[in-house]
Amino acid sequence: QIFNQHNAETPNLEQAFHRMAQMEPNLDHDMSWFLLPSYWAKMVVALISFLCFANSYDGDFVFDDSEAIINNKDLRAETPLGDLWYHDFWGSKLSSNTSHKSYRPLTVLTFRMNYLFAGGFYPVGFHVINIILHCTISVLMVDVFSILLGGLQFSNKGRRLNLAPKSSLLAALLFAVHPVHTECVAGIVGRADLLCALFFLLSFLGYCKAFRENKEGHTFSVFWVLVSVVLGAIAMLCKEQGITILGLNAVFDALVINKINLLELIRKLLYKDKSLENAGLLRKGLLFRITLLMCGGACILYIRWRIMGTGPPAFTEVDNPASFADSLFVRAINYNYYYSLNAWLLLCPWWLCFDWSMGCIPLIKSVSDWRIIALAALWFCLIGLICQALCSEDSHKRRILTLGLGFLIIPFLPASNLFFRVGFVVAERVIYLPSIGYCILFTYGFSLLSKQAKKKKILAVAVLGILLINVMRCALRSSQWRSEEQLFRSALSVCPLNAKVHYNVGKNLADKGNQSAAIKYYREAVRLNPKYVHAMNNLGNILKERNELHEAEELLSLAVQIQPDFAAAWMNLGIVQNSLRRFEEAEQSYWTAIKHRKKYPDCYYNLGRLYADLNRHIDALNAWRNATVLKPEHSLAWNNMIILLDNTGNLAQAEAVGREALELIPNDHSLMFSLANVLGKSQKYKESETLFLKAIKANPNAASYHGNLAVLYHRWGNLDLAKKHYEVSLKLDPMAPGTKENYNLLRRKLEQLQKKG
């Protein structure tokens, strides 16, 4: 009865195909689960996947979103589209020594389209696209799982038969509601994984279409094989894992299309059996198709290698401490422990964290560490599954277990540290694709239990309970990803030893103005990781603002000692030394910062302030000019140039600089104010008045703006207007320097005029 939805009007030949398919072992036979028509199954999966993550639609830009989106110049219209192909995911040049070599131009292109269509950085559009992508992928999973669990068979009309409708629905639901996917869906940068997964699945389905006309197993479509290679290349241009689909297509071809028994094949290869062709390698075009896949993969990798260069990504020890261990034993043990943690996140996705680095997972350094048990458990399970996949006499069981292990392991290989060092310890986003394999194995295990269980409905209720718990966990985790404060605080209980978690909580508090609380978290971050230079730098900055200069100097000096090329810490150290009136040391620190970061406008600005304090006016003007060349919108540098030229009596030059600045930053009220002062001194009263009024309109609560406009009117002879703005200024700031004296002078003058009148 399963197939009635497909063949209400099919001829006897198609019914024969159905009967042949039902003679194969079927996962659905003893499974107590819902049987829905294909269309309704997909609708249910789409709806439930939407409900899991819908509450993330109006979240903020959080964590890595700032660097990948807000600070990424590749999203701006002024950046040529061609640059996307030579920049990494974060907008840096691939040729740069600091590039992480994350080459995902198509993902960045979708961010750029979001930005342009929305007219700015509005996160709602970004989040909505991510949710739609996950729903689409979950729907495609129904078709993918029907092939992986039920096999690939077509009717005489070329329509693919769903031989496992119950199993494919269960597996797709498990995938749709898995909480480990929250980072990919609710975190905007997770779009790389979503797009990669989308084209990964389309590549697989395209490869399956190559056998649509293959009723006797002797023909296939080269066109669809090539389409699957192209879709695999597109997947890789979204994220690096995409290339692994070519290997999985080859595995699928061997196991499902050619029905190869891997153990038998290995034996024949070892003993050089002459009947090797009977194993299926030379039949049905398998070698030709694998050659196409290998050539396509090699071309893709070569092109990427040429674009990104030969240099390895630049990572630090805190990103992935195990990869920096001197001992091969320590590296191997910890890598395997990381694998066991990833497996545990798939099995029990309760403890989730946005970042697992910086002491969150201490290194295993000896076999006496109790965590070795996790490695043993992982390999015990894997070896057991591999033995069953190779040695079972049940060909159906061999096929499903091998495909499940293949989809679990192969997409994870780029993140395994086996081929190259990666920049993380554990990352939930990288198990988005491997979770396909987990869903296959879970569904197969459920079908086996269903065969043995006497009360199948209780088992089905238990699985429904797991799905419901996962839906609730997804909704909760999505709400935590809505803001940085919730996200960072949620990690404190999961990774209390993670210095980066404490650093991010502190940074979030500092951004909100809560410096006292921020200091506490920054100190804890430095305690957990005494070499955490960014925490030292930020803590030093806060202490500098609180005038605790000596401790700030100690922290910043330690930071540059640990990381001598840390330009920001050198600049902040210079500011502290300047405040301590150690001018020569401050100047040296500023120049060291500029040495390590050539284009550093803020450092030139602070250097100019130092020179101004030392009355080295020419040097100060040159430093501020450099700041404005590097950053034309650097309002403070422009302002200081105008003020310095004004104070030294160079009114004509000050006016020229002010006009130049306003052409570049026409809406900056502080520049209007400074230029208005210069014009007033030059007796250009009307133009000065216009600028003062524009500045006041932009910032009506600035007492100095009203006070200086009053002085202008006072000089100009508009005494009533002068009185009005003096009074406004004093109302806004009763202690405004000079304003009260000028106001009293004006009142006396007005009284004298009244007496004369």
Description:
It is elongated and about 120 Å long. It is built from 33 helices and no strands. Helix content is 65%, strand content 0%. Mean pLDDT is 88; it is low at 1-23. With 757 residues, the protein is mainly alpha-helical. 44% of the residues are buried. Among the domains are: 35-308, no CATH class; 329-468, no CATH class; 498-598, Alpha Horseshoe (Serine Threonine Protein Phosphatase 5, Tetratricopeptide repeat), CATH 1.25.40.
C-alpha-based Rg, rounded: 34 Å
- Low-pLDDT segments, ≥5 res: 1-23
- Helix/strand-derived class? mainly alpha
Count, helices: 33
In which range does the helix fraction lie?
Answer: 55-70%
N→C terminal distance? 110 Å
The average pLDDT value, as a whole number, equals 88
Strand content: under 5%
Q: What best-fitting shape do the alpha-carbon axes yield?
A: elongated
Largest sheet: none
How many β-strand stretches? 0
